[in-house]
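Figure S7 source data.
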Amino acid sequence: MTHQHDTLSVGMVGHAFMGAAHSQAWRNAPRFFDLPLHLRMAAVAGRDEARVHEAATRLGWDTTETSWQALVAREDIDLVDVCTPGDTHAEIAIAALEAGKHVLCEKPLANTVEEAEAMVEAAERARAAGVRSMVGFTYRRVPAIGLARQLVADGRIGQVHHVRAQYLQDWIVDPEAPMSWRLDRSKAGSGALGDIGAHIVDLTQFITGDTIATVSGRLETFVKERPLPAEVHHGLAGSAAGGSGERGLVTVDDAAAFLAHFRGGALGVFEATRFANGRKNAIRIEVNGSRGSLAFDFEDMNVLHFFDGDDDSATAGFRRILATEPEHPYVAAWWPPGHLLGYEHGFTHQVVDLVTDIAAGNDPAPSFADGLQVQRVLAAVEASSQRNAWQDVPA
Ligand code: SOE
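Tokens for the predicted alpha-L-sorbopyranose complex:
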């Protein structure tokens, strides 16, 4: 379905924080990996003409559009990369799929289960014509996370009993941190729950190969009103509040905590918060099984801790595996062992996997259906918090 048989022309919608991360990935993937298709960074779309021009120059896009509709209508575009806030994901992705374009869509897939369902239907219709789609849970592509999944699949930790996951940030702990779209339910769908809780739901299910069956949770909004911003940095709240004195209503959760029961029998404890003072982007995951345990923290993202219960008890203990060997996922394309990877590499790996699947005619993962399943878990947590009761996640 590519425009020219060996070129994939990409059009990106949105050019803030995620747009910058995706641009770097589209640019770097072919420089480090042997891709089956030539990539063309054909166009970027944004509403403000001056800003989108500046972004295209800075991020390396050939041309610009001032509406996503114009970008989707372009015949020379093969793939649409959706890097906008959640309220526009469904509309853009469905239009692009209907126009026969492959779609990469930022997470969470949508703002509601209903939107996500419509996206899955559109993806399935388009798939019949060879059109592919993927949702951007990039942390799956951290090598240490890939290794963790492999160890679980190989039975190295045995039957999974416990899943412990925290996603901890602190960028709005200051009550004077200004409003941003991420604090507005009509734009973002939810707060910490969907923005970062979605990642740990996806990651724990990816690592364990299991899915969450039922949840009991509580959402909290600690600061209910904030100053309207003078400017917004990278979609996160800026440090300087606007001078007008006007305040806006925070309509999403600041933090979410929930218990989960996995279909395979494991018990899960999850926490997602923007109020963990001092924690910037900690993603901590621990899995305890009948034969061993795994532990990961994104703030030390090249490392996986592995406890092998089969070791001699006199010398057993968590071993610190530096996941930078060529046999670890994606690493061979980069630097020699011990030369570390960072946040942006996950986005590059995402492009590599997507382009490889498109060229091979395979279904990329995580699919829109996977994104919908995560959305159902998030919706169940919200419902549980409202009802003060356990809530099942539809299979
Ligand atoms: C903001 O909380 C954010 O940028 C998330 O939206 C991303 O998904 C996460 O990778 C980092 O934090």
